[in-house]
Specification:
- The protein is 32% helix and 5% strand.
- Helix 4 packs across helix 5.
- The protein folds into two domains: 53 residues, no CATH class; 73 residues, no CATH class.
- Strands 1-2 form a two-stranded antiparallel sheet.
- The protein has five helices and four strands.
- The longest helix has 14 residues.
- The protein is mainly α and 150 residues long.
């Protein structure tokens, strides 16, 4: 759909330019998204996460390995990534989710806010309930929802 829009814009104005912003300029299936033959064909600015943290634009990363260990030995890899449905099936267990939520609450008890992300579309209600049962407020949203419903 966006390709048709860009093609139509170039009919109206052959000098039209496309500007793209991304945090992930490489795709496992197709390689770099910025290439002389692509819509995005020139990198005009690059900045690293570390530099943005040092300059105060991003908060320092604070990652913790979970206490509960899960073996990923039986997961398959497709296009350089674990197969998402297999990961979801492996990780979507009550004990794992509740343990992870408890760890997040513990690690963030001194913060006024925290953000957590999961790749699966299911389970958000359970995680929200687990986090709120600790007395903390919690919201969940899904990128697949309409923009006004998020």
């Amino acid at each position: 759909m966006y390709r048709q829009f860009i093609a139509d814009a170039k009919v109206v104005n052959p000098l039209a330019r496309v500007i793209g912003l991304t945090a992930t300029p490489f795709r496992m299936k197709s390689g770099p998204i910025c290439d002389p033959g692509n819509i995005l064909n020139h990198v005009c600015f690059e900045v690293g996460v570390r530099e943005l943290i040092v300059q105060g634009f991003l908060s320092p990363l604070r990652t913790k390995a979970g206490l509960q260990k899960v073996s990923t030995d039986d997961l398959h890899v497709r296009a350089g990534e674990f197969v998402a449905s297999e990961v979801e099936d492996l990780m979507d267990k009550d004990a794992l989710v509740e343990g992870a939520c408890a760890e997040i609450v513990e690690h963030t008890k001194d913060r006024s806010a925290a953000s957590a992300r999961r790749s699966a579309k299911t389970g958000r209600t359970r995680e929200r309930g687990t986090a709120t049962s600790t007395g903390r407020s919690c919201a969940a949203w899904c990128g697949a929802r309409r923009a006004g419903a998020r």
